[in-house]
# Entry
Amino acid sequence: MDKFKKFAGTRSSEITEITEGLSEVKEHHQNYGYISESATNFTNSFDEMLVSTIKLYQQYYNIEQMGRLDEKTTGQMMVP
# Structure
């Protein structure tokens, strides 16, 4: 789960920003039910789908819903 630590601080200010490995974040969120199982072909783009699922994840864990991968969010993602 340490693989998500590298994303701490990644922001959605540039919605089309490409960051290597973001597809893994999307797959993680799909594995835990934040993205529909029917979704496939995840990209490394910080897109609207990722922002929306990050906000949903943050809401569930009572983290401020900013839609970015801050330290609290990535820290929670690394908890087994």
